[in-house]
Model the fold of this input.
Amino acid sequence: MNGYFMEPQNFSVNDGDGIRTVIFFAGCPLNCKWCANPESTLDFKRVSFNKKTCIGCGKCTEICPVGVNIDLNSPGQREKCISCRSCMDICPTNSRKKLVRIYSDSEILEIIKSQEIFYRYSNGGVTFSGGEATLQRDMLRILVNSLYDKAVDMALETSGYFDFDEVKDILTKLDLIFVDIKHMDEKKHELYTGKGNKKILENIKKMNELDVPIVVRIPVIDSVNSDEDNIKKTAVFVKENIKNPKIELLPYHNFAEEKYECLGLAKMSDNFKRPSNEFLSHLKMIIKNEGAESVSYI
Done:
């Protein structure tokens, strides 16, 4: 089976225990305004153009069938591009490239196999992320079933926005589930992600019945969801609905800013800010006071 993926990441230490390989599935049902992988919500054939590494040789314009300029992100050029990807093969500096690739299940498993020694000696494993891995549930099922038979530790990073019954068999074979709660307010969740949070909260309740450890993650963003009231409501929900309630606060970052530029997208809002370490410590105390444990894999 073939699926759409972003570039896998080896030697990760932030996405579960030990040294891990993170498999990034492309595609997501949400459209978060701060998304770190914006290529996952676009046409998978979209060509990325890095103006900083381009040497202006013009080879891309010579081969382009529709006459797109060297600067793919200049006005009007994106609209002309048909994503034939001919320019990527000829670019000497890899300034034009694809950020989403097609991999077969056997290719992904081979990538994982090549790193297996690091999992065994660090109590690590594989983390499925995205995008949203459950969107390609048939591919995810093949990978999970294969690794389960080999006793490879597996974690899932999910938005929680999926049809539970369609992926329940997959979830039961995992060793850890990271699930986001981006906002407890339904309307604000829809404003910032394009979807409400009811399905996510219901799925968390259902996942609690699977006997798989759950860590709720909050991407903490000033001006969006970092207020004490939202953090307290999240902690109360987690305490009431997860057997071993754990929350990880993920402070906002703008590491994906260059991706937005290379894909010809408007940059993330300047209103999005990273909270201070002192304020994060304060929020962790709120979580603790509500009876949930504050954890960190960073």
Q: What stands out?
A: The radius of gyration is 20 Å. The chain is about 35% helix and 20% strand. The chain has two domains: 2-41+100-295, 47-98. Residues 235 and 287 are 5 Å apart (CA to CA).
